[in-house]
Request: fold
Amino acid sequence: MIEAHGLTKSFGPARALAGLDLAVPAGTTMCLLGPNGAGKTTAVRVLTTLLRPDAGWARVAGYDVATDGADVRRRIGMSGQYASLDECLTGRANLVMIARLSRIAKRKARCRAAALLAALDLEQAADRPVRTYSGGMRRRLDLAASLLGQPSVLFLDEPTTGLDPRSRLTLWGIIGDLVAMGTTLLLTTQYLDEADRLADRICVINGGRVTAQGSPAELKARAGTSLLRLTVSATVSLARAAEEISEYAAGPVRRLAGQHGLEIPVVQRPGLVTEIVRLLDAAGIDVDDIAVRPPSLDDVFASLTGPVAA
Amino acid sequence: MRAVVWSLPDLDGPGIEEPSLAGPAQDAAGTGWLDGLRWALSDVRVLAWRTLARIATTPEQLLNVTLLPLVFVLLFSYVFNGAIVFPGHGSYRDYLIAGIFAVNMGGTAQGAAIGMAVDLSTGLIDRFRSLPMSRAAVIVGRTVADLLTTLLGAAVTVLAGLAVGWRVHASPASLLLALVFALMFGYSAAWAGACVGILARGPESAQAVGLTVIVPLSLTSNAFISTASLPSALQLVANWNPVSVLAAACRRLLGNPDPAAAIHAWPMQHPELASALWSLALLAVMAPLTVRLYIHRTGR
Reply:
């Protein structure tokens, strides 16, 4: 549904996109994950026809963004990093205006505005000017605006940046509903938990190109090792416990702070924990607790968005 | 945490046929130029409505078109009345009102300049650009709305003028013609203002540039004074000034004192034609230029 190949875009000497490739199949959610200045917003602006790429091509909903801009615009919805609404109009008036400009007939426009205001829990504020809205309400209204045209492809550029935790959860719920309805979604974020929660696939981008991609689970696996946390009975020497399981350690073993236990990097596989428990049991070591934690996306992010290799 | 509380077909409520889910959900079925024009006009209507609807939530926006003309009429007819030497027959007040009316019309540029700059300083233009709408409609809608706002101000001028003793001695046809010339000038001035708004770095600079052009233009015209007392170089400016030309045309059409008729300069001898030509020329230059600048500024 979204396909991009070799997109480049420079602003003067600054290279925002340096050969970006993307493929988002219909009905899936792709998350562009990267730090500030990675090129996420530029990528979205190229894909939504707001910017013309210097090189490369992209197709959205079957249309070329460079040559068939109007066809693309008819099929997409976009909600930007900065809410793009008329501050002096009411929420309802904003939606009706945007629906009418999306070439939706008047009666239908009013109907859709009302339905979206209700769905996004903005009914109470519908007839107040947008300048009185909170940050979360603006984002929801902006999202509503991007849904008026019933887009088959939706672009959300950092939809929850700057929101309080409750508003984030609300927006996540709404976005989850949209995905469940089969909308193809391209989402950008700097938050790993957001990517982990919403995306089918994640593209980690840095310096204007994709540095890693895969499902959240694949990316975590790519970070390699999991962490085994083991706490043992206070009567057991930690050195002995470490000695016993040294053959499983895939890296340096650390003591757990504040607990009588160890943290051991391991290569996770089925049956690993059982094996270790049996081994320690045979060695007469009482295990209080044992758990394997997969690497977090934070670990992945840190390992993938280091300085771009020249 | 949330059930799916809404679904696509529900958006349109009962009684409206569901759009085909295979195609785009919009109603722009046809692609012919006539359909294109129909939608472009609809965009203009929506955007003009938007500009006017903003006033409902921020009515103070109207102060400059409602209070200011009133202040002008009172200021000139009571404060400056005695200080301004008015040659020939007729009263200064009879002379003044058409001048203020012409200045009102030129002031449309100021509203358009600031409005355009404000729009460009927000994310709203990005939203517009991601929609399948006409881009020129953004400026056409703004200029139409600003012209309507100016008309409100002009109405205040007329009513205040009538209150201070200004009278019209003209046929309905002449009145209508004066209104047409005024609208033409107001509309082309709005495009010039929109152009300034697009070139300006922000609303403040748009306002500064607008005032810097409009105040001298209004004061070097025959709007408030008779130009006979001006130095000859300034007289030349005043005689060709579009504000003078419109004021002279209105005075002639409304049967008000028109000392400019004695000036042997082509625009003062043919103010109606000169005013129409001024407006058409301004619009012919500004409309394509402004649309191009807009597309370039918001460009890809």
In short: Residues 2-221 of chain A form a domain with the Rossmann fold fold (CATH 3.40.50.300).
